[in-house]
Amino acid sequence: MRLFWELIKLAFQRQLTYRAANLAGLATNFFFGFLRASVMIALYRSEQQVAGITLRQAITYTGLTQATIAFLSLFGWWDVMTSVYSGDIASDLLKPLNYYTFWLAQDVGRAAASIIVRGITIMIAYALFFDITLPKTAGQWLALLVALGFSLLVSFSWRFLINLAAFWTPDARGIGRLAFGTSWFLSGFMMPLRFFPDWFVRLCHLTPFPSMINTVVEVYLGTLHGTALWRALAVQVAWAAALFVVGQVALRMGVRRLVIQGG
Question: Where are the alpha helices (DSSP H) in 45-172?
């Protein structure tokens, strides 16, 4: 357990050293966030609500989704893939941690730094420029923290699984780009899921993607209460567990293939 926390701390410190990258990412998030907010304002025009979401909530949604891009590595994450191609996986597998746990610790440290440097900063900027909503009770804030934690677990487990494609193909980034692009639409990142037809929303909820973004958004906006809130958090846990199991099976198969080939 001590090694796990040390890896988190090292990853946190490493992420903070990339100052230029963090500032560039922050500026990009600001630009596209304000652009998306402008689209929402144009969409609503004189409407008070669209699909049960007010303009104020819709603008808040754009800020919140921009704030979680770096936290969840929504646009790509290739670390495990790189370790397979470089051969570093051989030494990583010898470490006194499960391979999944080894990378999870580093991702938690990276995500923690990202939510502080970019996530919170973006939401503060939004509060200065727009009239955004905030969670109204301590219970809602607590539920938000829990939902964020579970969303990271689901996101990491999905990214870890996709990266394992490197065992079977000489360049798995194409598979990764397709997987990440799909997640943008099905998670509620591009547009709130409530804006889509019911059949599409039901399709989305057959995947783990809404547990990454949509659940966090709805908890923050206060649209989930009581049983619905507990159910949404339980679904996050279920997807994290399912993806973990599938990832472990794929990892064993990949390592066996690597050893058989003399890697």
Answer: 55-67, 69-72, 79-86, 89-92, 99-114, 121-129, 138-163
